[in-house]
Design brief:
This protein is of the alpha/beta class and 389 residues long. It has eleven helices and 14 strands.
Amino acid sequence: MSEYIEHDKDHISVGLVEKKYFTFANPHNEMILENGSQLGPITLVYETYGTLTPRKNNVILILHALSGDSHVAGYYTEKDSKPGWWDIMVGPGKGIDTNKYFVICSNMLGSCMGSTGPSSTNPETNRPYGIDFPFVTIGDMVSAQKMLLDHLGIQQILSVIGGSIGGMQVLEWCVRYPEMIISAIPLATTTRHSALAIAFNEVARQAIMADPKWNNGDYYSGEKPELGLAIARMVGHITYLSDESMRLKFGRRLQNKKDFSFNFDVDFQVESYLRYQGTKFVERFDANSFLYITKASDYYDLEKQHGNDSAVKAFSKTNVKFLVVSFTSDWLYPTYQSKTMVKAMKKNGLDVSFCEIEAQWGHDAFLLPNDRLTSLMKGFLERVCSQDR
C-alpha cells in the first residue's frame, strides 16, 4: 500500500495529526472472540480528522486493507516525507471532505501497526504472543471497532468506507450493526473469497512458514523470517496489479543492462520492482500478522455467516444506503462479485448505486488518484448527508 502514497498535487492536507490509543477488555472482562477464545487487554490505535458536530452525526469510519494502518491522511511531523495512505482522498475539499466530516480510522485487530496482534506482549508470559495469539475474524475486528466508537460516544455513522479487506469489514458493519449505519461504500471487495484468492493467500503463507527463521512463529528475540515475508509480499503484489498495468509499467524491459546476464540475478525491471517491494515490506510489517489477517479474510463468508448461505438473506438484515464500486482490471475481486452483491441488495429493496470504473491498475486502483472515484464518493456522501438532515 505504501508505494502509492504521494503528496497532494495541490498541497492540500489535514496537516499534522497524532495517533491515539484506546485500551479495553481488561482482566476479568476479556473480549470473547468468534472462535470462543478470550483476548485482553486489547489496544486499538486510531486517528481522527475534522470536527465532530454537536449532534455527532457527521462521522465517517474508514477501514483499511491488509497492510494498511490508522494513518489515513496528514503528517506526524513537518519532516515526514510521505502523508497518510489515502491522503489523496481524505482532507479539506477532497472526496472525503474533512471540512464537513469527522473521519475515524483505527488499525485493525491482529495487525502490527499499533493495535494488539501477534507481536504484542502476551500478559500471561510477558513475551510476544506469536502463534499463541488467538485466531481473529473480520467479525472480531468489527466488534473491536464498535468498542472504540462506544468509547468515543458515537452512536451513528454517516458512512463506513473501505476497500479490499477493509471492504469486507464495511459489509460486516452493515449487517452486524445496521442500526448505527446510514450509508456504506465498499470498494473493490467481495462477500467471500474465491478459490483463486484463497490460493494466492495460501502460497504467501507457505512462503513465510517455509522460512526456517519463522521458527513456528517465535522469532521476535532473534532473526525474523524476512525472506519468507518478502516472497509473500511479492506474490500478493502481483494480485494487486493487472496484466495491462504491468505491461505498461515494465513490459519486458531490462533493469540497468542491455542484455541478459545468464545468471539468477535481476534481469527484468519487473523482477527488480518485486524484490524492492518485498524488501520494503519486511521493514514495516510483521510476518505473523500477515498470516493471521490473510486467514481472517479467507474465513470471511457473509452469506454463510449471516444468511444461511444466501446473500439475499444476509443483506435483509440491513437498510443501509450503498455505493458499490469495482474496477475493470481488478482480477482479484472482479466486477462479477460486486454485481452479485448489488443484485442481492436490490432484491431487498435497498438504496444501491453501483459503478464499475475503467481503470488499468488492477485491484489497487482504489488507492490511486482517480477523478471518477473522487467525484462518485463526494456526490454520494453529499446526497446521504442532505437526506439525513
